């Protein structure tokens, strides 16, 4: 489970996927398979979550890695390059962006 904290040393990657409602479930299954079968087994992987909007036109993916280099190494593998080609066919666009946690807030 992802842990969001300002003082964490992990690399956070947020990826937004845009698709049509007709391809949302197929894309969600492709992403779920990628995490279950490959990504979660890569060196440096910490945790991830997938979120789908109500209109089924966007999927947001939040992942954490021990180091930036671990995430980049996973992207460069033949396995992930092939998976990303398939994922790209199911969506209009997707873009992974690396972030640092600037703050967290909790309710009472």
UniProtKB/TrEMBL annotation:
This is Antibiotic biosynthesis monooxygenase. InterPro entries: ABM_dom (IPR007138), Dimeric_a/b-barrel (IPR011008). The keyword Oxidoreductase applies. Keywords: Monooxygenase, Oxidoreductase. One of its GO terms (molecular function) is monooxygenase activity. The lineage of its organism: Bacteria, Pseudomonadati, Pseudomonadota, Alphaproteobacteria, Rhodobacterales. The keyword rRNA-binding does not apply. Pfam families: ABM. Residues 11-101 form the ABM domain.
């Amino acid at each position: 489970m992802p842990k969001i904290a300002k003082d964490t040393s992990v690399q956070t990657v947020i990826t937004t996927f845009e698709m049509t409602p007709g391809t949302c479930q197929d894309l969600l299954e492709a992403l779920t398979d990628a995490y279950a079968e490959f990504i979660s087994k890569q060196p440096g992987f910490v945790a991830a979550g997938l979120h789908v909007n109500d209109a089924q036109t966007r999927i947001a993916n939040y992942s954490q890695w021990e180091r930036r280099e671990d995430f980049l190494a996973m992207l460069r593998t033949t396995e992930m390059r092939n998976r990303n080609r398939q994922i790209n066919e199911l969506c209009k666009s997707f873009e992974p962006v690396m972030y640092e946690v600037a703050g967290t807030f909790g309710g009472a």
